[in-house]
């Protein structure tokens, strides 16, 4: 694994830095335990005099905001909290208005910053508020879920859901700094940890087969915490940073990061963003299993690789079939309607991330909607 490591020479294994290389908007992702206590000093060193709106959800704020606030105060950073309800429903027009107005009311200036303390919901919402308030304020990510530490805090995709579908309103707005305190994951529920892990496996399935092999061998250690967990987070950030640096605005290869998402987003919409039924990472897990099975039915992906992917996801407690979502099943029509609103649709034609096997994902354009509908009917009938 050495050639894949994001560990700077001589640094202790538990303290990692990954660079996102984007010319004058480059930034660091700092990853280690206890970072929340150093957050104030890290921010003050990079953004002297900055004032902050700290956006968090009710759950995360109750657990971790006081400690962050102490660290900010110790560094002399003025800040106001903006607390929103937890859950996907907060990534909405109402949620956006609440954050934007709180930032304006607090008289924060363009040179000040919005700090997201939370999972991907808080990060996407706070980042979008930072992108549009005063035509673009500073933005800092302090991700607290596994999903946010390995994926959503990196790369600058921000936004909210619209009634028509996931993330349909948003902007690219890169953070100036990402502070991932791995110890904060100790308070995350096992279900949310597993959901975040789906986005970790995704990097292996896209184009890092040796990372998939490592995860297959070290899965239990990653779930247990400690060095293996930090290693998985750093390697995931490194994988994402490389893709984002190559294609920030998703003109090409960045679409690979959408493996499992065209199906997954349609399933989240079908579940009405009810996180009791389905959370994003679970939708991605089902979506990745579907993408592998569809690729196999098209003669692209070996059946043995499909079986390995399904077995790995199931062993992590993740769903792999549409029928694993509790409650009523969706109709093919409802799923196809949601899929037709996917942001990768070009000139009315579907784009899917398909695969020739583990670590061999590719972007398939002009995918036949009839083939997808037939495949979904077979899946729902099974
Ligand atoms: N911008 C991107 O590139 C990107 C990438 C992946 C996902 N996303 C988006 O991210 C969202 C999913 O993110 P998520 O899975 O983090 O969901 P989330 O933000 O809803 O967090 C999951 C749950 O865990 C709780 N939580 C978070 N951190 C905690 C902690 N340390 N201790 C205890 N509870 C904690 C939250 O309150 C919430 O109830 C989706 O909206 C998805 O579309 C965005
Ligand atoms: O960063 C990206 O690019 C991704 O696609 C990462 C995904 O995990 C994430 O869920 C993202 O929000 C999906 O983006 P979208 O453009 O399909 O809404
Ligand atoms: Zn995702």
UniProtKB/TrEMBL annotation:
Residues 196-345 form the 3-dehydroquinate synthase C-terminal domain. It is found in: Cytoplasm. Zn(2+) binds at residues 199, 261, 280. Keywords: Amino-acid biosynthesis, Aromatic amino acid biosynthesis, Cobalt, Cytoplasm, Lyase, Metal-binding, NAD, Nucleotide-binding, Zinc. The keyword Kinase does not apply. Its EC number is 4.2.3.4. It is an enzyme of class 4 (lyase). NAD(+) binds at residues 120-124, 144-145, 157, 166. Its main location: cytoplasm. Pathway: Metabolic intermediate biosynthesis; chorismate biosynthesis; chorismate from D-erythrose 4-phosphate and phosphoenolpyruvate: step 2/7. InterPro entries: Dehydroquinate_synthase, DHQ_synth_AroB, DHQ_synth_fam, DHQS/DOIS_N, DHQS_C. One of its GO terms (biological process) is aromatic amino acid family biosynthetic process. Residues 82-194 form the 3-dehydroquinate synthase N-terminal domain. Its cofactor is Zn(2+); NAD(+); Co(2+). GO terms for molecular function: 3-dehydroquinate synthase activity; metal ion binding; nucleotide binding. Belongs to the sugar phosphate cyclases superfamily. Dehydroquinate synthase family. This is 3-dehydroquinate synthase. It comes from Fulvimarina manganoxydans. The lineage of its organism: Bacteria, Pseudomonadati, Pseudomonadota, Alphaproteobacteria, Hyphomicrobiales.
């Amino acid at each position: 694994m050495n050639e894949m490591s994001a560990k700077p020479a001589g640094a202790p294994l538990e303290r990692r830095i990954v660079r996102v290389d984007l010319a004058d908007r480059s930034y660091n992702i700092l990853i280690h335990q206890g970072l929340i206590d150093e957050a104030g000093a890290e921010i003050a060193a990079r953004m002297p005099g900055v004032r902050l709106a700290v956006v968090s959800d009710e759950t995360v704020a109750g657990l971790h905001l006081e400690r962050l606030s102490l660290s900010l105060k110790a560094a002399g950073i003025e800040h106001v909290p903006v607390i929103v309800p937890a859950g996907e429903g907060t990534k909405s027009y109402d949620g956006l208005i609440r954050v934007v107005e709180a930032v304006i009311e607090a008289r924060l200036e363009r040179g000040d910053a919005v700090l997201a303390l939370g999972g991907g919901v808080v990060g996407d919402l706070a980042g979008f508020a930072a992108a549009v308030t005063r035509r673009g304020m500073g933005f800092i990510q302090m991700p607290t879920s596994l999903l946010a530490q390995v994926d959503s805090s990196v790369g600058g995709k921000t936004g909210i859901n619209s009634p028509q579908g996931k993330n349909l309103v948003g902007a690219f707005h890169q953070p100036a700094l990402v502070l991932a305190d791995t110890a904060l994951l100790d308070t995350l529920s096992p279900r949310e940890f597993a959901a975040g892990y789906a986005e970790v496996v995704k990097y292996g399935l896209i184009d890092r087969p040796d990372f998939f092999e490592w995860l297959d061998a070290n899965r239990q250690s990653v779930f247990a915490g400690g060095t293996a967990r930090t290693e998985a987070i750093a390697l995931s950030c490194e994988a994402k940073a490389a893709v984002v640096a190559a294609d920030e605005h998703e003109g090409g290869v960045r679409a690979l990061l959408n493996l499992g998402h065209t199906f997954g987003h349609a399933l989240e919409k079908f579940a009405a963003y009810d996180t009791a039924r389905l959370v994003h990472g679970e939708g991605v897990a089902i979506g990745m299993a579907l993408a592998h099975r569809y690729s196999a039915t098209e003669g692209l992906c070996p059946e043995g690789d499909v079986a390995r992917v399904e077995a790995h996801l199931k062993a992590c407690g993740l769903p792999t079939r549409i029928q694993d979502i509790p409650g009523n099943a969706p109709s093919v029509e409802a799923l196809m309607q949601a899929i037709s609103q996917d942001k990768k649709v070009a000139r009315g034609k579907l784009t899917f991330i398909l695969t020739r096997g583990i670590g061999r994902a590719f972007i398939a354009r002009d995918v036949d909607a009839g083939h997808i509908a037939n495949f979904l009917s077979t899946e729902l009938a099974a």
